[in-house]
Every structure is written in C-alpha cells, then in structure tokens.
C-alpha cells in the first residue's frame, strides 16, 4: 500500500497531473481575458461529460478510440519509433472492417471476430510498411507515417466509393447487423448513447500492451531497442526485424480502433474529407500517459472528457469550443516540457521540507 | 550561496515566462473570439451582446406568449464559412429578431458529434432543431426516431420521418442562370467549376451550371474539379490555381469554406493584372469578397428556408415532409445587384429564368 502511495506521488505520476492542472488554470485565465466565467465553463464541461447516462455513454464512446490510438503511439515509442501514422492505420482498419461488415454474410460469432481480425491485419500491415522502410532503407518513420496517412485517407475513400457506396450518399452501405459491436440493450442502458463493446476490447488490448512489453522476451527486446538500438544490436537483438514487428503491433492497435468506430458507432464508413483526428490525438494521449498502459487509458479518459465536454462549454457558458483545444495544447505543452514542471514540483517539495 | 541565487533567478524567470505566455495566449484567445464574430455582417456581431438584448427585450414584451426555442447544428464547416452554414445561422438570427425566439447553434468538430449535438438541443427542450447539411441526414434520422415528440428539420437532405421537415433546393436551376452569365462573358471559352464533396447536392450545381454554359455558348468548355472537402480553403486555392493556369477565366465554386480559397486565388491574380472572375455560391459573396472579383453569385436562400419553416412552427403550420425550393419559389437565383454583369446579359438571364419557371426548359439535375 505504501508502495502504491509512493508511486502515486512519484515524479512520473505527478508531472502529468501538475501539467493538467496548469493547463486547466491557464485555460481559465484565457477565459477570463475573454470575459467568460471559467467556473461556469468547466462546470458545464463536466456536466456535459458526466451529467446523465446518455452523455456518460457518449463520453465513453469518445474515449474509446483514444485508448486504441494512444496504445498504438505508446507502443511504438517504447521501441524508440515515433508513430505519427496511427491516423492512417486507424482509417485502414476502419475500411477493412467496413468491407467485411458490408460484403460478408456470417453469423455474429464469426462475423465480429473476422471483421476485427481483418482490421487488425490491415492496420498492422499498414504500420509494418513503415517498419520495413525504416529497417531496409533507413527512411525516417516520421516522414513515411505522415505520407502514408494521406495515402490511407484517399485509398479508403476510393474503396468506399467504388466497392461499398450507398447510392446518393457520401458513405458506405450499412454493415450487416451481425457485425455490430453495439447492442440495443447496452444502448438502452445509456439512454440511446452510442456506447459499444469496443471499450472492452480497448481495455483488453491495454492489458495485452502491458503483458507483451513487460512479461515477454519479445517485449524486453523491443524496449531494449528503444533504450539503445546500437547496444541492443551488439547484444544480439535483430533491431531491423524489431522495427517491423513493433510497427505491426502498433498499427494493429490503431486498426482495431478504427474497426470499433465502424462496427460500434456509425455502422458505416464515411467518405472522409479530412482526418478523423483520433490518431494524432493518440500522440497526446501517449505523452500524457507516459507510454504506460494505465497512463494511456487515463490520458484517453482526460482527452475524451475534454473533447466531448467542449460542446457543453459552448452550450452552458458560451465559450467557443475551440478553446478546449487551447487547454489540451497547454496540457501537452507542459507534459512535453516535463523539465519545467519537474523543477516546479522540486521547488514545492523543498519548501515543504519533504525531501525524497 | 551562489547556487541558491542562481536558482532563485531561474525560478523568477520561469514565473515571468509563464506570465508572458499567459498574456500572449490570452491575446490569442481574445482575437479568436473577435474572429468568430468578425466574419458576420454587422447586425449579427457579438453573439453575447445579442443574447443579452434578446433576453432583455423578452422581459419587457411580457411573458404571456410562449417563447420558441429554435436551434441548429452545423456540420464541420461552422457558422463563419462565408456561405452555407453562415446563411442558415443568419436566417435563424433573423427569425430571432422577428419572432422574439431564443436561438442557438452548436458546431460539430467531427461527424461523430452530429448525434450528441442534436441530442443536446432536443433533450433541452428545443421546439425545433435544425440539422444543416446533407451530411447530417443519418444523424437527424436517428435522433428523430429516438425522440418522436421532438421536431427536427434538415437542409439539403430528405429524411423520411414523421417529425422531420426536409428542405431541398433546385440548385441546378440557379446554377443554370449563372452558367448563362459565365457562358456569355467568358473570353477564353474555358470555365472552371470547383466542387466540395462529390455528393448529389453538389452534382446538381455542376449539372445545371454546365447546361447553362452550353445553352448560350456551345463552344465553351467547363472544367470540373472536386476538392473533396467543404472546409479546406487551401485546397480550394490550389484547385483555382490549376483551373486559371489551364486558361479558365471564370470559376464557379460550390464548395462552402473551401471556396474562400478560390476567391483568394482570384483576388491575387486580379491584383497581378489577370482578367479573372469568381462566381460565388449560397450567399451574395460580393459582400464578403468585393465586386472586384465577384462576377455574381448563385444565391441559395438557406436563410429564407430556415426563417420560413421556423415561422411555420410558430404559426402552427409546421409540416413534416419535403419542401423543394427552386426558381419559382425564389429559393435560388442571382442577387439583386450585379454591377459586373452587362445589361444585355442580365436580360438573357431573365428570359431563361422565365423559361425555367414556365417549364419550357427543364434543367438537368445530374
């Protein structure tokens, strides 16, 4: 128990928490400057996110994809790779699930796993292209992931337009009901909110994330490469194949996330004019969560609550929804500028005489 | 000792930095707000002020009559898109001032927001909730089915539900007329069309426009370009640059905020001495972009539709089902003032308009 408490107040936990507080406070200062009432604004934000069963269900719906993409980015980070491509892997997973969901007829106990497997494979392969290019050609993953995001966006639109289009609409046909991840019973419980079983898959994957990285030999190798690729190579780890494996698993997380959006929330895949934004927000989630499984889930909760509650802020206090992006940006800024926050915490501790 | 002094200094520096950052960001936040209101005509400026005066006037006008609560949800374009969503919001504000109703809007950040945003209003007892735009069809249908007692309305899409009023426009008829203008006024015989997403609504613009051009100038060539987005001025600018480089001298856009980029490209070329024009869409866009570049506009009176259907609700005549607004209903057409279009061209436009209204010409819609 004391170990838990100690851990709670260790710097790696405190830094995100303090950063979040600073972000919220600075956000309040900005609201004051704009002649808005920050207490009312934050009050309406949380009222929107947790106020009733419907909104609570929708908040969970909003959190779910962030867990997936957060895991994807965090997993790659552990091997020292910066996966900005969760967005593209997410889209490829979504469109793969849509294909299986629309075109295939199967009973649900086959259909759901098949669609999920297809999306995992699609996302994983999309990610491993990046890993391969890095391993074989030394192309930096930041470049390739960004480029592959755009390719994924337009390739997915092309697939929807040519193979799955509902005539006269800017989206695919509805997927078969046997491939839905949502159930009327669950929705009813949350007053018709679009909460779906994807959230359980997300939590299961975060356990898997922890297990693979810290309980398997493979995970040990992945993390070793993350710490020092040269030393790892010297120690006999195949660094190149590690890159490919990492990116496959990373893409798999994002891909399944995309599938859950299609199978749980919309039941169709839209022709996207722009990125849904879950993959990019996944970077923030991973940063806030410090690349740990629990941290990612908590980071996703934070970002999900803030983004979903934003419209409540507009509704209840008249604060433009865009402001929430400023708050999120501030939080990310202070998490990233951890050194600054660390200094602050140390200073505070010294003053109170608690030296560790 | 030296160390502590240094530490204190760095500590002060951090505080100073944080404060500086706060003020810089505060400045940003403020200008952001101004920007939010700046894009709208004077009478709509300062949503906050409006709200205050509105509640004030309600108190004085006595509380006997029911105050209607009519609201709208935009797609990702937002109410400052200089065209479609803005027109709807202006209509709602006009309704507010005419009927003393309470109005509000929510802007969707992504397509996942459509349903919760609609629900936010419906569950707060809105008398009528508007979904603005084709893309919100599924969301409106879902919310309408789950809340059979609520009244909803949608623009540009037909939703089959007993509590939803659908309003669509015959964009092809109005586009035909601006096509006539473009066909008669082009010097290069090349005319551009920039569309947002390739959806039936925008296809109607394209089909009508092409037909209008061909009717008066069979030699003219209409080059079609779809950007795939309604909220990407950068892509609109790139598309316009391509079309102008191909020799087009007039571009008609039906792309919402993406069209802002078309105008920007046109203005730049005009300043550099180019002989180019842009035909605006949805609103009289010369109000925003000036007469130097705006040849004319294909007005789609989303604002009037919003006022009309909302007023029907107040007058107890709210009718679920489809309303289609064309030239005959004044739902589409050219603005009243077209200083850049010569008299004889306008005369021909009028003649074609009459033929369309009388049914002599049937404009293709796809």
UniProtKB/TrEMBL annotation, chain A:
Q: Which domain of life is it from?
A: Bacteria
Protein keywords = Cell membrane, Membrane, Transmembrane, Transmembrane helix
Q: What topology in the membrane does the UniProt record assign? A: Multi-pass membrane protein
The cross-references to Pfam families, in alphabetical order and at most eight, read: BPD_transp_2
Location of the protein in the cell: Cell membrane
Transmembrane residue ranges: 12-36, 63-83, 90-110, 116-135, 142-160, 195-213, 247-267, 273-289, 296-317, 323-345
Q: What is this protein called?
A: ABC transporter permease protein yufP
UniProt lineage:
Bacteria, Bacillati, Bacillota, Bacilli, Bacillales
Gene that this sequence comes from: txxe 754-yufP
